[in-house]
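User: tokens in, sequence out, please.
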């Protein structure tokens, strides 16, 4: 049975907005997405963020994953493999055609251009115009190390309305601190960045559509000095600062704020591919 499902999968899932993250599971530690049991509602979409490498030959590349709330038109989290140093920046903003137009629409992010009927299930650039909020990235440009990933961060499903001062100063500085912190990682560093919504505030004012962020959070995990080491962050706190906390405490905070149970950002164990099969090690510092 398992084999059959495995064989059918590539034919069933030719698009980018999925019911799970199996097409982009490499984005996650141990190939396992975070567990967010609150989010079973079908307004929550799994986006394997992709760009076309060669559109004529239908070659695309999956670069990271976003869990997206189409009701509040705000992401829940984006998960990515950290990279540095960044190679540049450009600022066109993309939309996700399939969220509004269904799975027959063009897969992969694309400029809105003159496409019609975009916006019912996602935010568009005009939502931000004059709103007083920035498009705050979850997966930030400065955590990418190649051109395609850099471009791919510039999609509106990877952004939420964020206070401009916090975005441009405090959270940016935090992102730089993360770069320094992850420098000593051996192998890949996995990052999950989320947004907790402030359901009382929506933009734009005259036609409230998009829920703004109350705070951003981030969890990192990598191998350092032979130990899996994780670090949690969230901000702004009540004083407009970024706080550091353990992954366990971050999970508890999210459970409390979401009024949910069993939020788990990382898997429990890591399986070492390079060690004789069956060797598993607890992930202490990352959960
Ligand atoms: C999605 O957004 C709506 C509107 O802000 C909110 O009421 C709901 O709780 C959100 N769902 C999740 C799973 O975050």
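Assistant: Sequence out:
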């Amino acid at each position: 049975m398992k084999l059959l499902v495995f064989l059918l999968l590539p034919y069933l899932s030719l698009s980018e907005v999925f019911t799970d993250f199996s097409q982009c599971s490499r984005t996650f530690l141990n190939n396992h997405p975070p567990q967010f049991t609150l989010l079973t509602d079908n307004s929550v979409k799994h986006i394997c963020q992709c760009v076309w490498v060669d559109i004529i030959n239908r070659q695309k590349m999956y670069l990271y994953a976003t869990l997206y709330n189409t009701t509040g038109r705000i992401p829940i989290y984006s998960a990515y493999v950290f990279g540095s140093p960044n190679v540049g920046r450009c600022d066109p903003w993309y939309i996700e055609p399939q969220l509004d137009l269904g799975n027959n629409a063009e897969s992969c992010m694309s400029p809105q251009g003159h496409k019609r009927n975009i916006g019912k299930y996602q935010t568009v650039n005009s939502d931000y115009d004059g709103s007083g909020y920035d498009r705050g990235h979850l997966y930030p440009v400065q955590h990418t190390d190649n051109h395609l990933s850099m471009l791919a961060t510039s999609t509106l499903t990877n952004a939420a309305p964020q206070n401009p001062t916090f975005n441009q100063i405090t959270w940016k500085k935090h992102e730089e601190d993360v770069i320094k912190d992850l420098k000593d990682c051996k192998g890949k560093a996995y990052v999950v960045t989320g947004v907790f919504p402030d359901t009382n505030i929506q933009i734009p004012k005259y036609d409230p559509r998009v829920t703004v962020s109350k705070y951003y959070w981030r969890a990192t995990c990598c191998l350092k000095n032979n130990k899996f080491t994780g670090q949690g962050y969230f901000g702004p706190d009540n004083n407009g600062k970024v706080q550091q906390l353990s992954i366990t405490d971050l999970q508890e905070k999210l459970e409390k704020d979401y009024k949910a149970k069993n939020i788990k950002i990382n898997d429990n164990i890591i399986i070492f591919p390079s060690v004789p099969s069956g060797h598993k090690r607890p992930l202490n510092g990352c959960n």
